[in-house]
């Protein structure tokens, strides 16, 4: 399972380190004291130029409701609570500045990545899964390709000609990893951002890979 994920996502990481991280995650999820309440609404920024990203610090008046895309029933309520618990695990283990879990879903606007749970500053709720948007979005690029993107120095990456749409100017490193179903199709992503360069060490990446293996079991229907 771990080896298959590593191979499909094109990540160079030690299997044993992911096994240990996955054991820690399973233990964390089994502890009743770590129960988290589901979050159905959250604040979102105004969209930036071209709708490609968001205006950092400028929030829309109305919060975004996941009910616009998900039936609010017990199964989905439980799913969001479990995903929020995974977010809490990542917060405890990595102290990353921003982390989000997205599911690929069909919407009235076409296929999009829907943000289901997160920690950190408010951010956009939906990313169109289109080749055009992939040119300016790591999230969409990973959502379409199923291949990981790890940028440990955003400034150097941009200076060398890499395309990067800055949402929060404090972000200095970013990781986007795919989520796979049993048929190894990409059904979502995780996105993590840090305010310091070289943040995503091999030891740190083991936790992110571990949650990617677990998250598909908890995604809403």
Automatic annotation (TrEMBL):
| Signal peptide, first to last residue | none
Recorded superkingdom: Bacteria
Q: Does the keyword Kinase apply?
A: yes
Domain GAF as annotated: residue spans: 83-212
Keyword Transmembrane (UniProt): no
Q: Which terms in the Gene Ontology molecular function aspect does this entry carry?
A: kinase activity
Q: Which UniProt keywords are given for this protein, alphabetically ordered?
A: Kinase, Transferase
Q: What InterPro entries does this protein's entry cite?
A: GAF, GAF-like_dom_sf
**Protein's name according to its UniProt entry:** Histidine kinase
Report the source organism.
Pseudoalteromonas xiamenensis
